[in-house]
Design brief:
Elements lengths: L1 H26 L2 E5 L5 E3 L3 E8 L7 E6 L2 E3 L5 E3 L6 E11 L2 E12 L5 E12 L6 E7 L2 E6 L6 E6 L4 E7 L6 E7 L2 E6 L4 E6 L5 E6 L9 E3 L5 E4 L4 E5 L6 E6 L10 E7 L2 E6 L4 E5 L6 E6 L16 E5 L6 E6 L4 E9 L1
Parallel strand pairs: 2-8, 9-25
Antiparallel strand pairs: 1-3, 3-6, 4-5, 4-7, 7-8, 9-28, 10-11, 11-12, 12-13, 14-15, 15-16, 16-17, 18-19, 19-20, 20-21, 22-23, 23-24, 24-25, 26-27, 27-28
Amino acid sequence: MKLYNLLIPTLLLLFLGGCGNNSEEKKDAFALKIENQKKTYTTADQLTVSIQNKKNIAIDSVVYTLNNNRVDISGDKILLTDKKLGKKTLTATIYSDGETYNASQQFTILSSIKPKLYTYKVLETYPHDINAYTQGLEFENDTLYESTGQYRSSSLRKTDYKTGEVLQQVNLAPHYFGEGLTILNNKIYQLTWRENTGFIYNLNTMEKTGTFVYGKSKEGWGLCHDDQNNIYKSDGTDRIWTLNPNTLAEKDYIEIFTNTSKISSVNELEWVEGKIYANVYQQGSIAIIDPSNGAVEGVIDLTDLKDKVTQHPKLDVLNGIAYNGEPNILYITGKNWDKLFKIEIFEK
């Protein structure tokens, strides 16, 4: 009986040890090599890859994936032309006689273009509620809708942008901090900051009709939508998420990069002629982003626009971008600004 009891643990140890060694052998059997490897590449680059077969195992086939998305290889070349920007893991899955092996390398893909720099000219100035902590701004049929923040004073507003008059207002419960908004298919979608909750309203009545929750995105910051009914959401990081317009579930995301670095704290969003215009929090600038891959194609310098409003203790940063279908024209305001500006943008 005692001998039996001693044999069981010994056999278990031998079995587990054998499995562990086999796992390590599989792990070290292959290595993925990238010729002239770097930490960063651009979408103009191509990778020359090879598999180092350390144990001379017969290879049946190899499949390459980039962040779990299969990529095509031509000979030993992988093109990055149509790839999204950001941190990537390139994995080679090697198949051999019923066994599977993996080898990987990590790197970052940057934009291949240097952003164009834009400046602006003020065309018109309109009054704006100095007590509105602006978080989202969007036109619908020449009427301006606005979402405001701060606990105990967050709201959704329908306004006459020319006079600054608030035509209709819905106040959020005190424990919600309002964030960005967008309007799609006669519905208004509004985010909250850290409460993991979004609100849905009837556009005509502004009656609340539903809610939605966030998935993997960190927080609620900005919203906009494209012409194909995709909704885009920022969460205060370098990511912009694509939401399903029916379920509001997060489908995918892009990471925002220039040709040299990532852009963090992406905030208020606006869809303008096929591009995402994104306010960068605490910066008086707007990034013009390619929604297909996250590349920053342009930067609008609005750093001195804040100087043109009434200076007061609660005055905060630029945050509020609206587009009303006029080429090169934007409507801009900020947190506790007493003015809304109609500006024309042009390349420096």
